Amino acid sequence: MKLGVLFSGGKDSCLALHRAVAAGHEIVCLLTLFPERDDSWMFHTPALEWTALQAKALDIAQLTAATPGEPEDELADMEALLVRAQRKYRITGVVTGALASVYQATRVQRVCANLGLWCFNPLWQLPQLKLLDVLLTDGYEVVVTAVAADGLGAEWLGRSLDRAAVDRLLVQADRHRLNPAGEGGELETLVLGAPLFQKRLRLIETTSKFHAGAGRLHITEAVLV
């Protein structure tokens, strides 16, 4: 099937893309929404501007749209983006990185149903430890771009999700009752390299801001190598 991927550039959407390809589907476009507010109910927000480099690394076309980030407006804007993808790339379905959020999954499914599109959630109910293990085993290069949880301080911003980081996340998950893969918004990520990437991203210049238990990595320069 010809599919589009709801793509944030984070670990979940990248892994979902790769699983869709492994299942024999043709990925014809990446679909990225840019919320105007950081606390979007539906969409990942950190480092979205660098999805354009990821699209080049994957050699897959990207369609983008802005959204104010209000709950119902987000759905309307997503639906409009999917209609564009139907018209331009003839997609018959949409891939999401939904893991456990019923709020997100049901809303995407509703929009897809309205448009006659198949909604494919290849990570649905995948155990979070398993997800992290797959990233390590398959050679994903992932950095943390945002944190918002007890036990995850400023030192996590820009940190690579290597084995040591995953082991530490599991300790903090047990201690602070957080989701180790960030399903509750505890952390956000950006994928720099992955199995289907033809090139990898290199971060040249970054700054981080951390305040009142939450922080973000701001990437001011990155290149493909």
Structure description:
This protein folds into two domains: 2-120, Rossmann fold (3-Layer(aba) Sandwich), CATH 3.40.50.620; 139-224, putative n-type atp pyrophosphatase, domain 2. The protein has six helices and nine strands; from the N terminus they run βαβαβαβαβαβαβββ. By secondary structure, it is of the alpha/beta class. The model has no long low-confidence stretch (mean pLDDT 93). The chain has helices spanning 11-22, 51-58, 71-89, 102-115, 128-137, 163-176, and strands at residues 2-6, 26-35, 62-67, 93-95, 118-120, 141-148, 187-193, 201-211, 214-224. A five-stranded parallel β-sheet has the order 3-2-1-4-5, with helices on both faces.
- By CATH reckoning, the class of the largest domain would read Alpha Beta
CATH superfamily of the largest domain, called what?
HUPs
Q: Please state the structural category.
A: alpha/beta
- β content, as a range? 25-35%
Oligomer: single chain
Order of helices and strands: EHEHEHEHEHEHEEE
Principal-axis shape equals globular
Distance between the termini: 31 Å
Number of domains: 2
Main sheet makeup: 5 strands, parallel
Number of β-strand runs: 9
Rg, Cα atoms, Å: 17 Å
* CATH-derived topology of the largest domain: Rossmann fold
The chain-level mean pLDDT equals: 93
Do you know the CATH architecture of the largest domain? 3-Layer(aba) Sandwich
Q: Total helix count?
A: 6
The residue ranges in which pLDDT falls below 50 over 5 or more consecutive positions are none
Strand order of the largest sheet: 3-2-1-4-5
Helix content: 25-40%
